Amino acid sequence: MIVRPKRPMIAIVDYKAGNLTSVARALEHLGHRAEITDRPERIRTADRVILPGVGAAGATMENLRALGLVDVLRSDIVTAGKPFLGICIGIQVLLDRSEEDAAACLAIVPGRVVRFPRSVDGRPLKVPQIGWNRVRQLRPHPVFAGVPDNTHFYFVNSYYPVPEDPAVAIATSDYGVQFTAAIARDNVLATQFHLEKSGACGLKLLDNFCRLRF
Amino acid sequence: MLAKRIIPCLDVRAGKVTKGVQFLKNADLGDPVAMARYYYEQGADEIVFYDITASNERRGIMIDVVRAVAREIFIPFSVGGGLRTLADMRAVLLAGAEKISIDSGAVRSPQIIAEGARAFGSQCIVLSMQVQKTGIRPEIPSGYQVIIDGGRTPTGRDAIQWSREGERLGAGELCINSIDRDGTKLGYELELTRTISDAVSIPVIASGGAGTPEHLRDAFTRGGADAAIVASIVHYGEHSIVDLKRFLRTVGVEVRDAVTFDGSAP
C-alpha cells in the first residue's frame, strides 16, 4: 500500500469580516490545501496560518477576542513559531495598537498603525488608497523569490504599519508618504497589499510563503 | 504613486458576452470566463462586467459567472447592472467580485450607496453614471445631466452635483460614462471627466469613447482620471492592453507592468 503524505493544511482565520474566500480560491488555484476556520483546534493543528481581510482594526480585534482566538494566535505564532502570514488588516493587527478605533492589537510586532495624512504639500490625498502601487524590496527575502523589485501590488488601505524596529520592514511603498508595505520577522510575514488580488506576482508571493521553511 | 488603471468592460447577457473578443482563438467567443482570463493575462488592472440581462429570474446565471471568473483571475473585478438591494450586492461580493457598480438604482434610491458602504466598505461601492451634455439650465448648472435606464430617461440631476452627493453618501469610486461619446471612438469626454475629478476626492473612472491610445493618455492627463474603461478598442483586436500600456509608458503615464509567473513580461 502506498501511503501518500498528507498535504500540509493552511488555516485561513475566519474572524467574521472581510472576504476570506478570495484567499482560499487563490490557494486552491496554487494547489494548496486550505480551510477557512474560526475553531481554535483547527488553527492549532494547522501547518500554517493566514490572517487575511478587509476590515477595521477595532472590529477585527473584537471579533478575534470574541472567538477566543487572540491567545491561540499569540501562542501559535510567538511560542510555537508556526509560519504566519498577515494580509492587509492582518499586518496591522500584528502591531501593538492602531489609530483606527484606537484599537489595542495583538502586540506580536512592536509598533503602531497610523492613518495616511489628509493632505501632502497642501494637496488633498485620496484616502483610502485604492489601486496598484509599486513595492520596493528593502532586502532579499525568500518570499520575494521570482518577484521583480518595484512590482505593482494591489492596495486598499487608509492606515499603514509603523514597526518600532526598522529592520523588520522588508518592503516599502509610497503614497503621499513612504510607508512599510511588508514585514518579516522569523516565522512571521505580513503584507499591507492584497496578494490574492495582485495578479501573477501576488500569487507567486503567496506560493512562496506556502513553501517557505522557517 | 498609484498606477493609472486600464479596465476592460464586458457586457454579459444571460451568461454570455454580447460583444465577442473576435481575435481570441480557440475559445468560445461568448464565454465571459475565457475573456476575463485573456485580459487578466494581458495585464488588465481590473475587469468590469455589466449584466444586461433583462429579466430577474436570470440573475442566478450572473452569480455563476462571477463564481467561475473568481476561480480564474486574481485581480479585482466589479459587477454592475440591475443591482438594487443589499442582498443583490452581497450575493455578487460573496461569489467573488471585489466591487459592485450601481447606476440607475442609486438614482432612484440614493440610500443604497450609504447602506452598501456601511455593510461592505466604501472600497466596494462604485457609483456609475450615464451622462449627457444637455445644456446649462437652472437644475443642470454644469450642462451635464445624469440619464438612467440605459440612456432613455433623463433625471433632471446635474452630473457634478450627483458625483458630490455620491461621494458624500459613501461611494468609493465614480465611473463616468459619456453617452455622447459611447461607441463613437472619438475619445473620452475630457471636460466632463476633468470637472468631476476636480470636484471630488475619490477615484474617477473615465468611460465612453476610447478609440486610440492617445485617448487614454488624454483621459489620464487632461481629464485627471484615475482609471479608464476600454471596450471596442480592445475587443476587436485593434489594440491590446499590452500595447496600450507600452504607449502610455512612453508618454510618461505610470501604468502597472504585467508580469508573468517567471518574472518576464507577456
Descriptive labels:
heterodimer; A: 214 residues; alpha/beta; Rossmann fold; 6 helices; B: alpha/beta; TIM Barrel; eight-stranded parallel barrel; 10 helices; 11 strands
Structure report:
The complex is a heterodimer of chains A (214) and B (266). The longest helix of chain A has 13 residues, at 199-211. With 214 residues, chain A is α/β, with parallel strands linked by helices. Chain A has one domain (9-211): 3-Layer(aba) Sandwich (Rossmann fold). Chain A has helices at residues 21-29, 40-45, 57-66, 70-79, 89-92, 199-211; strands at 9-13, 33-37, 48-51, 84-87, 97-98, 103-104, 111-115, 119-120, 123-124, 129-137, 151-157, 159-163, 169-175, 177-185, 188-191. With 266 residues, chain B is an alpha/beta fold. Chain B has one domain (5-250): Aldolase class I (TIM Barrel, Alpha-Beta Barrel). Chain B contains 10 helices and 11 strands. Chain B has helices at residues 32-42, 59-72, 86-94, 104-108, 111-120, 159-169, 190-199, 213-220, 232-235, 241-250; strands at 5-13, 16-17, 47-51, 77-80, 99-102, 125-133, 144-148, 153-158, 173-178, 204-207, 227-230. In chain B, strands 1-3-4-5-6-9-10-11 form an 8-stranded parallel barrel, surrounded by 6 helices. The radius of gyration of chain B is 17 Å and the shape is globular. The relative contact order of chain B is 0.14. The mean pLDDT of chain B is 91. At the A-B interface, helix 1, strand 10, strand 11 and helix 6 of A face helix 2 of B.
